[in-house]
Amino acid sequence: MISIEVDGRKIEAEEGSMIIEVADANGITIPRFCYHKKLSIAANCRMCLVEVEGVKKPLPACATPISDGMVVKTQSDLAEGGQKSVMEFLLINHPLDCPICDQGGECELQDLAMGYGRDVSRFCEGKRAVVDKDIGPLIETEMTRCIHCTRCVRFGREIAGIREMGATGRGEHMEITTFIEKSVDSEVSGNIIDLCPVGALTAKPSRYRARAWEMTQYDSVSPHDCIGANLHVHTHRNMVIRVVPKENEAVNEVWLSDRDRYSYEAVTMRDNDNRRLQEPMLKVNGEWQATDWETALDKVASKLNMIAQTDGAEHIGAISSPSATTEEMYLLQKLIRGLGSNNIDHRIRISDYSMQDNESLFPELSIELSELEALDACLLVGSDLRKDQPLAALRVRKATRHGQIAIINARKVYNNFNVLHEIEATPEDWLQQVAGVAKYLLDEAMASEDISADGLGYEGLDELLAEIKVEQSHINIAKMLQKAESSGVVLGLAALEFSHAATLRMLCRAIAGLSGATFGIMTHGGNSAGAYLAGAIPHRGPGGADVEEGGQTAQQMLAEGKKAFILLKTEIGKEAVNAEQAKASLQASEFVVALTSYTDDEAFEYADVILPIATYLESPGSYVNVNGHWQDFNACVQAPGQAKPAWKVLRVMGNLLELKNFDYVSAQDVMQEVKGRMGAVGDRIKARWQCPESLPTDGQCPEPLNIYQVDCWTRRAKALQKSALAEGKEGLKRPKLSPFHNILGGV
């Protein structure tokens, strides 16, 4: 630590820090446009000029490192004179669009112009104008407003890993644009809107909807993946206008994926879009009729009671979306178990449950997301992070700056980070490729410690792998993990959906254990961890409690059929692995009740009662992310018509079925009951080793869900559905880099 003086204040700071970083850390305001704490230093706007004692001219605070004894003045005549001169130059060509600009009221240029700008411009010539380019359905451009801070350019190059924006021309003719006038197709492209300090880049779906000061801000959590990105939801007149990131370094830093940002369009449907379900619907003689809540719920209760008493409760099943809230899934399992059935599941995309009794309390990453970027080595198995968990991909990308990444997948994926070792297997050969890495590590461990596989805690693994041939590609990956001080093995969604997922998971656990790496799983939906904790699985109750007799999994229920189904926020025909078989099973069922928010839900094809429920932005609740962090939120807007929060609907259903302890007043009451079932941390269920019986060669991988088809909300977000990724296009592939790229500052 060294000592410097800023505006008369003595400050201790780390050597090598920039003046602007020290000022920010100590509450000293220095104006800036190009500087951003998450991006590299460009020093091209010069707005942060400060006076440093002993230096004749002002220096840019963002690019000037501190030294011991340095004296800095941010408000001297020299500093302010430089700042005002820079502001005058910036305003020479900037249009007076403030009255119509979406950025008005929260514009950095507008704010700083009030403090450092002149009342009247001395520039009398014509202003520069730029022709706007259409860069896609998500981002609106007004590039005449651009001040060339290059934040958007640096974000694509350094954070997103896809260089879609760049500068052309020189001097007054310089423009920020896309390469070859293509659209911006990155899955995190919307972040350049937040980074833009002016109104050059704004959100296209919310353009001209409301002014910044008219909107009310609420906090929420994204339901689309297991990261649980934190959101600021901006509303006006009970309509969601836009969504922006809420800073949380432990979860999403300051970023959002595009589906986190734009899926709100499925909540607030505009332009005469009447897809929101606003009243209960009842099928009478094959025709759908609107009805009231009392009639609909009485029908549900009487039918479920009749089937439970006549055929037995085991003929009733419940399937939830993995993105339902913890409270909703807890009440759903409480209702179904109150009837006498353990047929409850949320794992719609999983087909292999053969070792589920040996799983941990819930599937988790095992390390914090912030630690993911610090790994020296990471093996990704069955993972397409860019599409499955875009914000986790940004963390892994940062890890490649100092660490190494290896991938074993059963299909080609396009990453936004460098991969050192990659094995692209076939589904039939996938297990053998993973087993090759495990065999090398096992043989090394047994030889070095002169101990058997049983003694290492992997009983039977040596016999299982006896016929596996170890190849150089396997050795490379194994040594990468062994040599690293910190390493991880992470399973993705494709690994969970694999037809022999349990065997694959056990092999990867062995690789992690034998190499000293941490083992983690990236799960489906926004609340798979919460589903496990709430008991929305057939083999365990809330908090991992034992059940007398395990129920059937989602795939078993849909394959064998049930007399009655309760569906919560899920569209089986679009989400299940065997979609056609699942729909046929539901159509053959005697009674199906669906809790949904939409009139175009496929449940109208097979349900008997459809109940309108609130979306994730219209109901309170909580999600548990892949690190086990509970994140609760409140409703941001009211649901339309007669739609109700799902937890309230399930509470009333429990009361009508005369089940005990359904007298909750709020969602918070439900959450407290769930947490009360967790027990002490030391009682957490740990994963147990179970050696697979064989290594099958008939593996199958279902077609993955499109990034914008993962749940009922992303499917109905119009802007997302118009994007290149929704059409299955990969967008710009990462260009081949020259040998001088790293020297010039690329990553």
Automatic annotation (TrEMBL):
SUPFAM superfamilies for the chain: 2Fe-2S ferredoxin-like, 4Fe-4S ferredoxins, Formate dehydrogenase/DMSO reductase, domains 1-3
Record note on cofactor: Binds 1 [2Fe-2S] cluster per subunit.
Needed cofactors: [2Fe-2S] cluster; [4Fe-4S] cluster
Keyword Cell division: no
BP GO annotations: ATP synthesis coupled electron transport
Protein name: NADH-quinone oxidoreductase
SMART domains: NADH-G_4Fe-4S_3
Function: NDH-1 shuttles electrons from NADH, via FMN and iron-sulfur (Fe-S) centers, to quinones in the respiratory chain. Couples the redox reaction to proton translocation (for every two electrons transferred, four hydrogen ions are translocated across the cytoplasmic membrane), and thus conserves the redox energy in a proton gradient.
One GO CC annotation: membrane
A GO term for molecular function: quinone binding
Assembly mode: Composed of 13 different subunits. Subunits NuoCD, E, F, and G constitute the peripheral sector of the complex.
Family classification: Belongs to the complex I 75 kDa subunit family.
